[in-house]
Amino acid sequence: MALLEAEAIPALSRSPPHLSTSYLSTSTIVALCVFFTLLCACIVIGHLLEENRWANESITALVLGLCSGMVVLLVTKFHSTKLLIFSENLFFLYLLPPIIFNAGFQVKKKQFFKNFTTILLFGIFGTVISFCIISVGAFLLIGKTGIASLSIEDYLAIGAILSATDSVCTLQVLSQDETPLLYSIVFGEGVVNDATSIVLFNSVQTLEFSKLNAVTALKLLGTFLYLFFTSTALGIAVGLISAYIIKTLYFGRHSTDREVALMMLMAYLSYMVAELLNLSGILTIFFCGIVMSHYTWHNVTGSSRITTKHSFATISFIAETFIFLYVGMDALDIDKWKTSKASAGTSVALSSALLALVLIGRAAFVFPIANITNCIKTIGSCKIEFRSQFIIWWAGLMRGAVTIALTYNRFQKSNDTTSQECALMITSTIIVVLFSTLVFGSVTKLMIEAVLLRHPKPPVSDLTNISDDLRLLFLENGDPSDQGNNNQRFTRQSSLSLLICYPTTTVHYLWRKFDDKFMRPVFGGTGFTRVVHGSSSGEVEEIS
Amino acid sequence: MALLEAEAIPALSRSPPHLSTSYLSTSTIVALCVFFTLLCACIVIGHLLEENRWANESITALVLGLCSGMVVLLVTKFHSTKLLIFSENLFFLYLLPPIIFNAGFQVKKKQFFKNFTTILLFGIFGTVISFCIISVGAFLLIGKTGIASLSIEDYLAIGAILSATDSVCTLQVLSQDETPLLYSIVFGEGVVNDATSIVLFNSVQTLEFSKLNAVTALKLLGTFLYLFFTSTALGIAVGLISAYIIKTLYFGRHSTDREVALMMLMAYLSYMVAELLNLSGILTIFFCGIVMSHYTWHNVTGSSRITTKHSFATISFIAETFIFLYVGMDALDIDKWKTSKASAGTSVALSSALLALVLIGRAAFVFPIANITNCIKTIGSCKIEFRSQFIIWWAGLMRGAVTIALTYNRFQKSNDTTSQECALMITSTIIVVLFSTLVFGSVTKLMIEAVLLRHPKPPVSDLTNISDDLRLLFLENGDPSDQGNNNQRFTRQSSLSLLICYPTTTVHYLWRKFDDKFMRPVFGGTGFTRVVHGSSSGEVEEIS
């Protein structure tokens, strides 16, 4: 079969021969039916449990997946639980891109870029630190459990695999309006972390580690930086091209559908081109999403804006639910558990060790990095308080689909050669994913509410005032004719001191000026939108 | 690979080893990149050629597909042209359902049901007549060309395959507002024809034709009627369930995305369940679309309405373009042409014969059925004039993706056993599809404009008045207390005579009464929509 590699369930695959629609295999249809029914159930149950303090959509999907895996196990009499084989292609080609694109498309750009340095520190350096600690820890601990056949590459892969966090659970609880700083850091770190851990994983797979020395580390760094910058540039380029095409050709005149189709296709194309050039598709499509929401989105008709905003969110939502369902069902695959041949004790010991490494590896960078940024920052409200640090730490404890996908990629090269150790690594990772998502995930809502509500946030910062000051100053600078000399000197002095004190804000302000003057006239954007007859702009909420 | 079965292109599949992202195969990515680039190109070129008299979107896609097939042929030095293998699964599982669902979702229901009997006559009886003529004709003609190895089943399959029309080209030209009768007949016939020919094809595949007698014919009819009614009922049931769920749970309160996701998933689920029960998924999803647009669509928030309307149309548009692109690229697959081993003369002769059968088979039912309906109908404006008959005939001459998919299904069981005759049948069908789409398709716009413009339509019918009369009459009947006896008797008489004279209108009126009284209070619909704060209903255009 095509998209979903189904395995026939003997009990169900016999169709009455007199009416068989011969062009579709029954096992495929059964698998698709089950999955779509479960997806619908997830949505309805998720809606009903909206007010529940313990559940959320991902946990619902995971539990439903586990339950249906159990049912399949019982129906087939413990013969096979594979309704679907976990396919990395399905995950990396069709499920991950819409999720990441939507993340870029819906991100509050102002907040994201204001905390850009902090996000990069957490997302890149933090992930690398976590990668190192987990790799070294795994090397030391797993050796003691008697598993000897793993190579250095395997340990490094484990480090990369377990560094990939899944902050969906936390993001569902945090409010973007009440705690903008915390939300943007957790959200941004999640995206950058995904990209970083996948790039790390790929680097580990391709570099030679026969002699581990400084040159290899430098190569790793070089590869990483190369991937980061080229991928970002590609994403921005594709986004700008889409904006330019839609602005120039003015599609809305004829058809809303063409605009929406072109946006979807070009976003997906950016991912594919990045993968073709062996760059990081995730970073590319993320930045493509940001650029599209900043320029392209403003060039289309009102209907297209509503449609793109909601349909991207819907597709991302379905993909996310599907992944959790998938992971849940896949966890009960009995063959893997048989192959691993490990006693319950070994499994639990190994999983606990990995989980402990995850906890330590995350704590080892969240609190130091947060305190370092606090020292650098001068404005009080931008500092990350201890309770925020705790939530950031907590948000990154869950492990999800990226972890599963990378584990399969590393430890299940082909079905025949799966050794005992590899199977054990897969099952242990599954235990870590299930435990962290179910246990940590269900406590998240309660905990965050407790931490945040008992200590209400201080009032919103006065950054807007500073921004106003800057605008005033720069405007005065730009138009000096009607200003006295004294005034001007004073102005220059303040702008310089402001630039030193609030570098991010200043960069942001300068970017806005550049954007208004050069980018928007070419690529469109707020203020350069055509007035479309019949579209009510009140319906369209601002994304930016 | 997963969704698209790519074949590695030797020249492109070598990726630099130092940076290879190991989790995706390069051939898949190359294929996806090419296809998405071509899709974007199709949209842009289609937009630029909007005003062109010869081109339309499907022809653009087909030609682009042919060109890129040619490029692949040259790049690989005539080694392989298969960037993608035409996969029936891909077509029937992922491309056809959204197209048919969107057709049901966007159909003008009033027009569609007003001409329901005519549509069914054309779609079912017409297709069956065409099926018989083409089968018999193929049996008589192909025997003469020296091809002897085809069985009776093969000839019947050819009949079913070549009865599947593709009226996309014509529908792009016809205007739903200017010629509502013509549009609804062509559109409705297209959908019913798809379903009928696929059901015929499946019946042919499964029934035993060792002894061709009256019992077999009756069985065929029985199977057909069973499939038709159960499939329709299933589609209506799923649509009503979705309406009920969304109305009762009131999803919009929390999330627009959930509403949209549930509508998408349940629509797709209806198709899958129908296929699982060996019914006709096409009919099911079509009626599911109709019910969803009549009930479910009115229960969701304003944003969801815009989103669903446009996103369904967009997905359908992409799927349609993709199919034509696919068919174009697939046509140049050199292996098939090699296998057929036929001289150019034989190919041309066979294709011409099939094309002639298509022309005759269609003429044989369009004009008789149109004249029969004209005799039955009493209102002048509802009669199908000769120039409309001509356009209906013309609209069904093009052959498209369904034809290709069914041909592959029948004549390419597996790559090894493809005999010479089967390969010849495949290539001949491809020639018929290409010729009819490119030649007939490019003339369509000019021809329809010529036929319709030179003979402007008569003014719109007075059917609305009749409907008003009926409403008045029935209302008076339902509330007899304030009516005199004489009046009432007169009323009853007229309503009875009206029922006899205009059965469709009366049925429609009675349905509206039933709908308003019993269905809408339970399943929602116009007039029972909640007022959603912040949504401007002016933005939402009525579908019904």
UniProtKB/TrEMBL annotation, chains A, B:
PANTHER family named in the record: SODIUM/HYDROGEN EXCHANGER (PTHR10110), SODIUM_HYDROGEN EXCHANGER (PTHR10110:SF197)
Provenance organism: Stylosanthes scabra
Localization annotation: Membrane
Sequence intervals crossing the membrane: 23-49, 61-78, 90-107, 119-143, 224-246, 267-292, 312-332, 344-370, 390-411, 423-448
Membrane topology: Multi-pass membrane protein
Cation/H+ exchanger transmembrane domain span: 55-448
Cited Gene3D superfamilies: 6.10.140.1330
Reaction catalysed by this enzyme: K(+)(in) + H(+)(out) = K(+)(out) + H(+)(in); Na(+)(in) + H(+)(out) = Na(+)(out) + H(+)(in)
Pfam families, per the entry: Na_H_Exchanger
Presence of the UniProt keyword Amino-acid biosynthesis in the record: no
Protein name, UniProt field: Sodium/hydrogen exchanger 2
Keyword vocabulary terms for this entry: Ion transport, Membrane, Potassium, Potassium transport, Sodium, Sodium transport, Transmembrane, Transmembrane helix, Transport
Superkingdom in the source lineage: Eukaryota
Keyword Transmembrane helix tagged: yes
